[in-house]
Amino acid sequence: MTLIDMPKPLLILVIVYTAYSLVSLMSFSNMYLSIILISIVFGISGRFRSALVGLRIFVALQIFVAAILLMFLVAFSTVEISQTFKQFNELSYAELSIFYLFLAFQCYVSYSRKTRMYVERT
After folding, report:
1. Does residue 48 sit in helix, strand or coil?
2. What residues have CB less than 8 Å from 70, skipping those under 6 apart?
């Protein structure tokens, strides 16, 4: 079995995760996030069930962050995230919609029946 046997949405997600983790490793900006993504990619490629659980936990954390971001955008005009010392001024609706669409795609892939069948098949 190769990566080509993977369901197409899962293959797209693996490619996006790999590209993001390689770019962030080269810039040393999000090293911990890239290590998590690389471990999820290798686990999914090796068909480890724990990687699917890790993917679902990672998506759940992103949903939590998205809800917090949405609450801050509704309540305040600016959002300050103290860990990265960045300030988002007037985050555009196009950027937010792209973020939420990608989050919905990740939810679909992580909870898809095809993904579960791919990981459980040996």
Report:
1. coil
2. none
